[in-house]
Automatic annotation (TrEMBL):
Protein known as: O-methyltransferase family protein
Organism the protein comes from: Halococcus hamelinensis 100A6
Alphabetic keyword roster: Methyltransferase, S-adenosyl-L-methionine, Transferase
A Pfam entry, by short name: Methyltransf_3
UniProt cross-references to InterPro entries, sorted A to Z: SAM-dependent_MTases_sf, SAM_O-MeTrfase
BP GO annotations: methylation
SUPFAM superfamilies from the UniProt entry: S-adenosyl-L-methionine-dependent methyltransferases
Coiled coil: none
One MF term in the entry's GO annotations: O-methyltransferase activity
Length: 219
């Protein structure tokens, strides 16, 4: 399935976004060559913008892989700020440590190996910004684990709400929301839409960059 963003829009996103540094360029190449599913540069730029808008000093990620998404945010954090990366694959997390050290951002990163949802239980928050990018059948669980730890004005971003590689696209999410037949993954994403929209403490909007971000702000 093609990325749901029209090619020209994706190219314009890149013209508008901050320039990646050499480390982020290399992470981009690593993802492309290995086929690793990162949030990509367009969602990455919006993730960083969200950190700027919330003046974020505390960020939590559910599912960090080799640190690509977290690296987008790192330059927007103060040097005494903190981003918690979570990943159950130790090799991915080792790569993240190395990239962060090379970029000079390891002072503000905490690398947590293991299950992200178990990990968040050990943190009190408050978080200014959260990325939900773990396995899709546990997006709702991730939101429920973190929602009470999000600062007022803080933002929860969930990735892959329009598409996920070859698995599903926007039509399948619509079908799932309408109760029609759709791949299981699209149903998991639809469950997430319904969960955040029903939450009186959050207001949500779809940001159609990359494979789609659902942005939920804590009221
Ligand atoms: C889609 S990738 C995205 C990684 C990263 N956010 C990025 O954009 O570069 C998701 C990653 O989350 C990890 N993951 C999925 N569920 C997880 C969980 N419950 N706890 C820890 N890691 C998880 C996977 O191993 C994978 O590396």
């Amino acid at each position: 399935m093609a990325n749901p963003m029209p090619e020209a829009v994706a190219r314009l996103c890149r013209r508008a976004a901050p320039e990646p540094d050499d480390v982020l360029d290399e992470m981009e190449t690593t993802a492309r060559e290995s086929g690793f599913p990162t949030i990509g540069p367009d969602a990455g730029a919006f993730y960083r913008l969200s950190a700027r808008l919330t003046a974020a000093s505390s960020v939590f990620e559910f599912g960090s892989g080799f640190g690509y998404s977290a690296y987008w945010v790192a330059p927007a954090l103060p040097s005494d700020g903190q981003i918690v990366l979570t990943e159950h694959d130790p090799d991915e997390l080792d790569m993240a440590r190395e990239f962060f050290a090379r970029g000079g951002y390891d002072d503000r990163a905490v690398f947590e190996e293991g299950d992200a949802i178990e990990t968040v239980e050990r943190y009190d928050g408050p978080f200014d910004l959260v990325l939900v990018d773990n396995e899709d059948d546990r997006y709702v669980e991730a939101f429920e684990a973190v929602r009470g730890k999000v600062a007022p004005g803080g933002i929860v971003l969930a990735d892959n709400v329009l598409a996920a590689g070859e698995q599903f696209g926007p039509d399948a999410v619509l079908d799932a929301l309408d109760g029609d037949e759709a791949p299981a993954t699209a149903h998991h994403i639809a469950d997430y839409y319904e969960r955040v929209r029903a939450d009186p403490d959050f207001e949500t909007a779809l940001v159609p960059v990359g494979e789609g971000l659902l942005a939920s702000v804590r009221l």
